[in-house]
Amino acid sequence: MIGLIAATAAGRRGCERLAAAWPDRTRVYDAPVAPALERAFAECDQLVCFLATGAVVRLVAPLLRGKDSDPGIVTVDEAHQHAVALLGGHGGGANALARAVCDVLGAAPVITTATDAVGTPGLDTLGFPAEGALAVVGRAILDGERVALRTDAVWPLPALPANVSAEAGPARLAVPAGRDTAGTTDSAMAKTGSAPPDSAVPRLGVAADSGAAGRGDRQVGPGAGSAPLAAEESAGGPQGGGDAGDARFTLWVTDRVVPLDARTAVLRPPSLVVGVGGSRGVSADEVLALIRQSLADAGLAAGSVAVLATVDAKADEAGIVEAAERLGVPLATYGAAELAAIEVPNPSAAPLAAVGTPSVAEAAALAASASGGGLLVPKRKSAMATAAVARRGPRGRLAVVGLGPGARDLLTPRAREELRRASVIVGLDQYVDQIRDLLRPGTRVLESGLGAEEERARTAVAEAQEGHAVALIGSGDAGVYAMASPALAEAGTDIDVVGVPGVTAALAAAAVLGAPLGHDHVSISLSDLHTPWGVIERRVRAAAEADLVVTFYNPRSRGRDWQLPKALGILGEHRAPTTPVGIVHAASRPDERSAVTTLAALDVRAVDMVTVVTVGNTATREVAGRMVTPRGYRWQAQPQGTQNTAATENTKENDQ
């Protein structure tokens, strides 16, 4: 909940605007300010104070307890010009809240957190529980000090600067004497944490480049006749190569207990799954005590527990449900038959008789791990509970990102976030150039030229399969005549995939032309490089007969100059010569140009591969120099001589 506090009429108006924008997330606290702020501080996760920053500092100073528990606080000035992230920029979410407040009020955010200012992710913003000397190691990263990165496996983290250098090979951790080391050998770790073997896929060679601009100086030809793929190391990478050398600071990414000192920080990846069972009436305290003792004895960190797992019959067992809630992890349940089919080291007759499977804890841990790496901790017992621990391997992340038609202000906020979330960018070189300045220091860039779509798709998937956070970029929307289709055809269930929509060339061109897509429409690519012309021609003819507005992609190139006239001729068999046609070259870019003409007057020589051609239907007309296709509303008169067969189909449409 976000508490809203104001002392003046202008501030109260600001509260009203935020409350209207976020009705389910906000609570307005009425004056007097001091007691209102004290109540809000105790009751809310975040606060927005329409007060002077100094006043808020004095009022909250006696209330502060610690960065792990204090709410994030944003202050807004009387004129609503600035939103200042005052307290809890990362942990309290004040930085993000300040930006969100600015989106509503039209203000400018004031973010003073050092990592945000220089584009380096804070260690407490990477999505993993963090502990140890976070401030010290974070400061070392910012200051360019060499930091040794020690990881058990590759995890999909954002890019880190070049001074954060990974040690060669997986980290080897000593388990303290006397602890239960069953299943915690290096070989077991390798089973669960290693990258999948390389397949016969054309891959990129990694070429390090110390600068953030420019191309890699090594290229690997991915296949005969393909444009070469170049890899650029923008400035290191979160888990890339490098020599930790004489690093004085250490950043661990591990689920194991490691010794902490004043120069060591640890990120806890979500790598452990705990299978649990229990007798009816088992308490949450007993379940949690058994889990914590089992982890401690094996030298494993509770912060890396990602899920509790049990049999379906225990899905409503109050103690198990509460234990998951108190750990802050989901509870996964599996059918008895599924668990019974899993081979375990310690089957038992008791659970077989009670719930229909010879194992609950061990089998559920293995089922939830889905890695085949075996148990780290075999079944442990208390009076009424059982627990077992397995490790699940990292899941890489592939974001397929549409960059829009080219203008920076048409790049969506979500696309920006994904570009900065990634440690690896894969894309066409000219598209990479559009967003290179948005990438974090340390981002590894794998770029290639036209004709290397197969290599880009397979490389992006392979990088994600190795555990990296990958952004595969394309112009417009990546799912429209772009890289989403070939990439997702190669991707399996072993990686997480995120789609980020973008403004398409057809939509950008339509906005320039007026409203040509006001009724049913279709996009057709005239490129016969991947689709036989016979198929394209049938689609054009079907669109012509259906009276659809048609947007042509890839309409004409130096080597393909006859397809557009042919397609226009097919449309001309069903539409009048005066049918409006819009052409837009380089929509939204500096060299944009456009024209509205007619089917008869269109000069195809003005069309090239970065031009979108939109042909109206029989109802489309030119109004004040703009191309308009009527929606068919009954209240809006239709010009004589036009038709719209769908005009009266539905009088209660939801406009989109």
Summarize this structure as a short list of keywords or feature phrases:
656 residues; alpha/beta; 7-stranded mixed sheet; 19 helices; 31 strands; 27% helix; globular; disordered C terminus
Describe the protein's topology:
Elements: E1 2-6, H1 9-21, E2 26-29, H2 33-43, E3 46-50, H3 53-60, E4 72-76, E5 82-87, H4 94-105, E6 108-110, H5 114-118, E7 130-132, H6 134-142, E8 147-151, E9 164-166, H7 186-193, E10 219-220, E11 229-233, E12 249-253, E13 264-267, E14 272-278, H8 284-297, E15 305-311, H9 318-327, E16 331-334, H10 336-340, H11 349-355, H12 361-369, E17 375-381, E18 385-391, E19 397-402, H13 413-421, E20 424-428, H14 429-435, E21 444-448, H15 453-465, E22 469-474, H16 484-490, E23 496-500, H17 505-513, E24 514-515, E25 521-525, H18 533-545, E26 549-553, H19 563-572, E27 580-585, E28 593-598, E29 611-615, E30 621-623, E31 626-628
Parallel strand pairs: 1-2, 1-3, 3-4, 5-6, 8-9, 8-12, 12-13, 14-15, 15-16, 19-22, 19-23, 20-21, 20-22, 24-31, 25-26
Antiparallel strand pairs: 4-5, 7-13, 10-11, 11-21, 14-18, 17-18, 26-29, 27-28, 27-29, 30-31
Short structural description:
The chain is α/β, with parallel strands linked by helices. Helix content is 27%, strand content 23%.
